[in-house]
Amino acid sequence: MFQLAQPDLDTLLVKKQSPLAAPDLLKKAAIKLILERGFSGATLTPILKEAGLSKGAMFHHYESRDALMAAAYMHLLGRAMEADTAMAKSLQAGETTLENFLEKIVARYRSETFVVTMELAVAVRTRPEILKASKGFPEWQKFQSSYWQKTFELPNKDPEQTAIHWDMLGYTLRGIGLRKMFGTEQKNNTLLATAIKTEFFSEAVVRPLTD
């Protein structure tokens, strides 16, 4: 598994606090242990030990391990939406180039955060309690379905072709992330971003930034 550096782990939380509140300590511990041990290895006892909290303190905030995992997952998805939105706005405002934007997108899909997110995504399929605790992640689903179309226009494609085009990009990015996880992707971010630009952005036009 990946080894997560402490500064990177801190950035997974919405805000650094001194000291961290109990829910943030629990989410931080869960994320760290999922990264190190996988979802199945991130059991309650080591999570509590990592967080430095008692079982009673944990159940004061979360009714179960699944509820904690749902909270950690929603947190990671929220950070992903924040990061992608900021990158899109920078591109649309002319503050960065398409090449730089795509490199950052690729880097996010190859990051430690993506590893944990995918572990939790798989867990959701086998543990419906996590999905129930998260109430289905409606904000994430809405964000995914609209992000690329809000950022780019494809003048030569109809709506159905456009939807398929961006779906294929999503599959490609997740594939890049998975190959990184399993050590089978050796290309660097720049080469991958260049290939993605050629494949998916030859006809794309950046939409102007609107309030």
From TrEMBL:
Residues 20-80 form the HTH tetR-type domain. One of its GO terms (molecular function) is DNA-binding transcription factor activity. The keyword DNA-binding applies. Residues 43-62 bind DNA. Keywords: DNA-binding, Transcription, Transcription regulation. Transmembrane segments: none annotated. This is TetR/AcrR family transcriptional regulator. It comes from Vreelandella populi. The lineage of its organism: Bacteria, Pseudomonadati, Pseudomonadota, Gammaproteobacteria, Oceanospirillales.
